[in-house]
Design brief:
alpha+beta, 522 residues, 63% helix, two-stranded antiparallel sheet
């Protein structure tokens, strides 16, 4: 988690205006994208606008090419028709192209809400119909001329114009129809089929079939364009939702940081405000318990002093455990590592708790592997781990039970420390509860002393800070075994003792290292 900054403290838990504005903007984009996805092909304004924009862009980009093509056709037609008629047709065609181009240029790139989309669609359809009529007029006129090649040129010209304009007008189906229908009628006028079965009839059927194919092709291109717009809308919706999820994640992270700041403030305040009066409570209750200024007139007062002192120590222990757990969870527990002997620490902790075990008639058995080398760890943390585990074992073991303590090697070359008791055990489904903060099993609540439920989480956190592993095994009515494993990286392997009679090593020769038998305490 990132560090809490002064800006977070100043801002508090209030909403960030920039974040709120960004969330509103993304909500609008998501709503628009969803409206696109749930609307029909002509039922949403955004799709209609994009289709008209595609038509306008196509007509603008093809304006110069179509003008050059028209000029070439007008020049070619002078071989069959007078120059004056070719010039008149060229002027009419250029006027139609100019009208279509002008409307395409005037169509706004980003239409406002009051822009009449239907009116623009009608304009473009009208312009394409006019151009279709002009081209159909030229083809019909050429088809009426009784000259070699005129009818063939007219037929090829009409089919070529249909093929050129079909991709341009495909984004507006009515415009495509308005352009192709006059040309199809002109083909009939050029070929003039007389009866079924002659060559002209089949040629007319072929030409009309090609016009029908162009119409189907325009519809397919329209559907493809519409599907592309649909996929684009889905992609925009996905991107917008991802951005919104990122903002929500950032907001949740900020709230988590602020909650962590509030928790840190609370723990700091509790540490100071509670420990200060606790020092006075523990000090004065100890004075009263020891009767330093004279015996109590009422014997019950001494018992009350003992209760006050015990309660104060319990509360101080609870505060220390909460603070330790919070530091471990926040990753702020600093290990003061040094060379320690695991066996010595476990033996010291067992000695401290021997009196408590004797009061409950509990037998403690030790199984320590000899000549274990020292390891690199935080002595205070390891001692706290051993004390917590041994205290729990004594607390949950009934009178007359037994506890087994083992310290030895692991198969990977590390060291382990285990505590096994003959207590009531923990049901398998309650192990996650026991390992959680303030969690206590049902059997523990009935048979054991009151506890905070923080011991095992603290032990697990301290072991994991050392890179080790915490293992809890338990069966009901058979007992519990807790195993703490320290990794091999923390074991200090001592070099073999120097032999005064052995010659010094040669240059470049590495001294031999001892095996497990040579691992002695440093």
């Amino acid at each position: 988690m990132t560090e809490v900054t002064a800006e977070m403290i100043e801002r508090g838990r209030g909403a960030d205006p920039k974040v709120a504005a960004e969330r509103r903007r993304l909500a609008v984009k998501i709503r628009e994208a969803r409206e696109k996805l749930t609307s029909t092909e002509t039922g949403h304004r955004a799709f209609d606008v994009q289709l008209l924009q595609l038509f306008a862009e196509g007509r603008k980009s093809s304006g110069v090419v179509m003008l050059a093509f028209t000029l070439a056709i007008a020049t070619t037609t002078t071989a069959w028709i007078p120059l004056e008629i070719s010039l008149i047709w060229l002027i009419l065609t250029s006027a139609g192209l100019a009208l279509s181009y002008r409307w395409a240029v005037k169509f706004p790139r980003n239409p406002s809400a009051d822009t009449n989309i239907g009116r623009w669609r009608h304009k473009f359809t009208f312009a394409e119909t006019v151009q279709g009529l002009i081209w159909a007029g030229l083809g019909s006129f050429l088809g009426q001329i009784d000259a070699p090649g005129a009818s063939t040129f007219a037929l090829v010209l009409l089919l070529l114009v249909s093929a050129i304009n079909t991709p341009i007008t495909a984004s507006i189906p009515n415009a495509a129809i308005g352009h192709l229908v006059p040309i199809t009628l002109a083909i009939f006028a050029v070929l003039r089929p007389t009866h079924f079965g002659d060559a002209t009839f089949y040629l007319t059927a072929l030409a009309c079939g090609m016009e029908l194919y162009f119409l189907v092709l325009a519809n397919k291109l329209y559907q493809t364009t519409l599907n592309s717009l649909l996929f684009q809308a889905e992609k925009d919706q996905l991107i917008t939702e991802l951005e919104q999820a990122r903002i929500n994640s950032d907001l949740a992270r900020r709230r988590s940081e602020e909650a962590n700041l509030a928790k840190s403030r609370f723990l700091a305040t509790m540490s100071h405000e509670l420990r200060t009066p606790l020092n006075a409570i523990l000090g004065f209750s100890e004075v009263m318990k020891g009767e330093l200024f004279g015996a109590h007139n009422v014997p019950a007062y001494k018992e009350y002093s003992n209760d006050i002192h015990s309660s104060g120590e319990h509360l101080l222990m609870l505060i220390n455990e909460i603070l330790d757990l919070s530091r471990v969870e926040a990753g702020r527990y600093e290990l003061r590592e040094e060379s320690i002997a695991l066996v010595n620490i476990v033996e010291d902790c067992r000695h401290l708790l021997t009196l408590r075990a004797k009061k409950r008639n509990i037998t403690i058995t030790e199984a320590f592997e000899p000549q274990l080398p020292r390891m690199w760890a935080d002595e205070r943390a390891v001692r706290q781990v051993a004390l917590n585990l041994l205290s729990n074992a004594i607390k949950f073991t009934p009178q007359g039970g037994s506890i087994t303590i083992k310290v030895g090697w692991t198969s990977a070359g590390g060291q382990y420390f285990s505590v096994r008791d003959t207590g009531p055990g923990i049901p398998e489904d309650e192990i996650p509860i026991v390992m959680s903060s303030f969690g206590r099993g049902s059997l523990a609540q009935k048979n054991a002393e009151e506890g905070s439920g923080l011991g095992l989480p603290i032990v697990k956190g301290l072991v994991e800070l050392h890179g080790g592993t915490f293992i809890l095994k338990s069966k009901v009515r058979e007992g519990t075994e807790v195993i703490v494993v320290f990794p091999p990286e923390r074991i200090m392997n001592a070099l073999p003792r120097l032999d005064p009679n052995k010659p010094p090593p040669r240059p470049g020769e590495k001294p031999a290292r001892g095996g497990r038998a040579a691992r002695t305490a440093a």
